[in-house]
Amino acid sequence: MSFGKKLFLQILWWFSLIGLSSQIRSHYSFVVREANYTRLCSTKSILTVNGNFPGPTIKVHRGETIFVNVYNKGNYNITLHWHGVKQPRNPWTDGPAYITQCPIQPGRRFRQKLIFSTEEGTIWWHAHSDWSRATIHGAIYVYPTKNTPYPFPKAHAEIPIIFSEWWKSDINEVFTQFIESGGGPNISDALTINGQPGDLYPCSMTETFEFHVEQGRTYLLRVVNAAMNLILFFSVSKHNLTVVGADGMLTKPLTREYICISPGQTMDVLLHANQEPDHYYLAARAYSSGVGVAFDNTTTTARVKYSGNYTPPSSPSLPNLPDFNDTPAVLDFITSLRGLPERYPRQVPTNITTQIVTTISVNTLPCPNGRTCQGPNGTIFAASMNNISFDTPNIDILKAYYYHINGVFKPGFPRFPPFIFNFTGDFLPITLNIPKQGTRVNVLNYGATVEIVFQGTNVIAGIDHPMHLHGFSFHVVGYGLGNFNQSKDPKNFNLVDPPYLNTVIVPVNGWAAVRFVATNPGVWFMHCHLERHQVWGMETVFIVKNGKASNETLPPPPPDMPLC
Fold first, then answer.
1. Which positions fall inside the Plastocyanin-like domain (predicted)?
2. Which terminus of the chain is more solvent-facing, meaning fewer CB atoms within 10 Å of its CB: N or C?
């Protein structure tokens, strides 16, 4: 491909993907279908939306309602989740399979209503069934209400930076082998930026994502970590990055040489083009704290090209990124992020009526007779919250709740760990390895002020966990290493300007505390956003009961809900 043609196609793709805020519409058509894509010297068929990888960008103003008509022309069941969209009183189109809906079967349609409320900045959408989200995902840009500017310097342009993972093998085969083996999944073959691996991978250099900047101007990077199992560090060589938003809520500016972002998280980041005209790498690679846990340790790159007359280098220098196991670097970043209290939809709750402390653990289950299992010592990997590994039912919990169908789920998710031990100790009793299995949910009264402490454990192996809650954002009031101390640690909570997120990184062998008010009636999923941990059962469900007023109750389902 000639340079001119390549440049034209990249410019065309860029403008089709990011456009202008004026290109906002109230209806979108998402056709899920197979498409052939070539990466790393080989071609395979992948599931896409409208043939695009990544998928189309949705653009709205704060507080708007839109509709997405989803038509499944693929070969597999599918659901779509609008990650970070709180969907007030509308769990029916939230998306997680068998939690709020049955999947959209091949040949079927579902018209999904997206109700935006207090979101502002970058969020995203993705498949929420099996491992389809590896290729079915895209960004959502939520602009301020009309004629209202962002509270940071106006950017010359906005640029999508969507990180993901790429497997040479068919992702459904990767998923099936993972489930059948009982062990860990095969690691990805590449990381990608906007679907492209970058210069450091074979057969990739000519398609590396690149964007052009002018010296002295500021650019808004709309960053999404759509990777399946990898927390990432990323940076731009010789440039600082300034975070001004996270998970669809604006933040106080935080300037760093690098950024840490987990699967599920999104960020709005300003890049000031204040260096000498040249080519610079934007690069990302994994952070992985699990001892002995295999991970993709490659580096993905994009090129930042300054305009002007100069001789570019044949290979730009890579930015300095923290080491793959640099937990202090992660803690320094996540604990430095601060919210903008004047933008909070409500102030930080202080009168807590419902307190939950939950362990989050990697576990094992015995290998069934007649089967060979590849988990530790011939077992099957599992995961749990408060020692319960979640069993996903075969009809959705929301339907069962609304229509009073018995036998699908049970209330009584524990609000405190059933076993008290040195959660982060080095040598733990083997009896802790095996969790209970069940479909336990946590029922909340409407208006409850909730505090959740996520306590990581060293059962089997400690690792960081990005915990995501559907239907809500929460104030992240505290982090710590080791075991949470109820008498000491709350004294250090940040109740003034904590970040307001929907996905929180719980540090390896540590804890994180969040608070929210349960004013969104319905059924809402909570899970680890490391895909392998969700498959293993590190999840639960909140059911928020109806309030008294008509605008505090769950309405009936739409008429075209997918059938199981």
1. 32-146, 159-309, 422-547
2. N
